[in-house]
Amino acid sequence: MKRRFWLIAVVLLISGLGFAQPKVLPAYTSLGVTTGKAGGSLTLSLASAPQTFFYYGAIDSAIQNLANQMFDGLIEYNLANYQIEPALATRWTITDSRVYTFDLRRDVRWHDGRPFTADDVVFTYTQIVANPEARGGDAANFEGVKIEKLGDFRVRFTLPKPAPAFIHYMRLPIMPKHKLLPFSQEGGKPRAEINSAWPTNVNPEEVVGTGPFRLRSYTAGQQVTLVKNPNYWKRDAAGNPLPYLEQLQYLIITDSQARVAQFLAGNIGQINITGAEFPDLKRRETQGAPFRVVQFRALFGSPPHIGFNYNAKNAELANLFKNSDFRRALQFAVNRERIIEDVYNGLAERASYGVAPLSEWYYPEVARLQGRFDLNAANAALDRLGLRRGPDGIRRLPSGRPLEFTLTYGSNSAVFTAIATILQSDFQRVGVKVNLQGILAANLLGTGRGADWEAILLALGDQPDPELRTPIWKPGGALYYWHQATQPTTPTGQPQFNNFLPWEREIYDLWERAASTTNFTQRKALYDRWQAIAAREAQVIMIAKEYAVGAVSNRYGNYIYSLGVIPGFNPVPLMFQR
Fold first, then answer.
1. CA-to-CA separations, 152 to 22, 112, 148, 219, in angstroms, rounded
2. Among residues 241, 184, 188, 247, which one has the least CA distance to residue 215?
3. Partner of 545 for a Cys bridge, out of 303, 321, 490, 562, CB 3.0 to 4.6 A?
4. Which residues form the Solute-binding protein family domain (predicted)?
């Protein structure tokens, strides 16, 4: 009898090992990755305090950074070649360009020990991502998508039409159904209730993910502490468990110069820096400072642009801002070359719309269509609009009032402050008075999505496929903030087509066609046409695309910063303390 029970136990053990599916990472020798040692801690920084610990409860850079460490998606990016590879999904098939079937990784546990299953995937996408009331959701891209559980470890997404970029949406963080059900429509609550999950005063034990670190504590406005998930499902190339580090600590430091000072003092182990900060840190490195500075042309990242409020409260300004001739005139007064050299110290390049110059989707004619810095051309264009100068040198609106507006920018960003100052000076030279209004950079997007602004200096991220930026660049999208009159009046409604400008309708139709075109060459032609129109009309005025620049203390190994901090690209579990 004892032998029989022993055999049953062995069979169960072998069976369990068969189902366990840890992911073994590539060696990444081309990136200089070596086998690390377990233990130690790393201190990082956040530019703002988190608004929530629920990833989908706000569009918030702080929780996006933290979520990279606490949660996982079905897919992720290879750290060396940026190609999509399995994460919480082990494999997938695509049938008829519309049906995506994912097999899920077994033996993955939430931070509280509960098993991860297909229920969590279906819940995340039906109750959160596709929820039009979720502030950080993406309902528009999941309209008409049928999401089904085919078993405990298999899910299927059936699309109403082909969507070539759909696979990228599978990198979105998967949330625990057993924790968030009480906040969901499935749990009997209104759809908007999901945004109230996991406020910043939540018990940290309630915030559970499948990621390499879990929430330990939060001191409001000061720091966030994460600790190692001992049951994480990834291994290094040698089979050692990840992450190596025992703890991540994030200090909340809103001022960029203060962050650099804390890094130089040794209180922060790694920072992302700007081209403006690069020369001093690089000089210190060459003189023997105990850190390393790296820089790459950036595929991701957020190039700043000037957005004009087409629906500004001042009707005269609104009419002017909607006029492409006015925006083109001011575009001539934007000295991108000076900004690249003086602000970014040469570590930037001209930017396009939603895709980086490094991307296969980039349209090379954008730079020509944007034009060059030419104050004579700017003055001539403004003259043609009938905006004559007054005795003080400032042009006059048709009402006789001075042509002046307020430019809102991130005053805690050295880069934004420098760009805003240059713009103010050069616009003054063509008779346009700009009043600068500084706010926290973390509040810029929220301000832009409101009504009380005139012009804004804002940065929105590039992505590997233009479709992933649909809410920003497709007229009527949730983040098409500069012309809010095009947006639906209800979360699930249609755009207000009657408020579209003619060129906006053309862009909208191009995006509609590209979203269901599976042939790469045909899609590329459609997105080229979109970029051409956006540049020709100066939809917004793109400034520059900064390189990815970072610095890391010599106390740490396996630092990778070729893409930056984005969902689905997370090298931190490989970092270790020497």
1. 18, 19, 11, 38
2. 247
3. 303
4. 83-464
DSSP at 241: B
Work out the pLDDT band at 562, boundaries 50, 70, 90. Answer: low
Q: Given strand 291-296, what is the order of strands in its sheet?
A: 270-273, 548-553, 291-296
Residue type, 111: H
State the Cα–Cα distance between residues 143 and 166, nearest whole angstrom: 12
Give me the count of residues in the chain: 578
> For residue 33, what is the DSSP state?
-
Query: Amino acid identity, residue 443?
Result: N
pLDDT at 13: 35
359 Rama sector, left if φ>0, alpha if ψ -120 to 50, beta otherwise:
beta
The token duo for 66 is 């933290």
What CATH class is the domain 304-546? alpha beta
- For residue 16, the model assigns a pLDDT of 37
- Spatial neighbors of 470 by CB under 8 A, at least 6 apart, are 140, 141, 477, 511, 515
- Bond from prior residue into 22 cis (ω within 30 degrees of 0): no
Q: Are strands 404-410 and 541-542 parallel, antiparallel or unpaired?
A: unpaired
Q: Which pLDDT belongs to residue 81?
A: 81
- CB-side exposure of 261: number of CA atoms within 13 Å? 6
| 14-18, 247-251, 390-394, 447-451, range with the lowest pLDDT | 14-18
Q: Count how many Cα atoms sit within 13 Å of the Cα of residue 285 in the half-sphere of its side chain.
A: 16
Quickly list DSSP for 518-551. --HHHHHHHHHHHHHHHHHHTSSEE--EE-EEEE
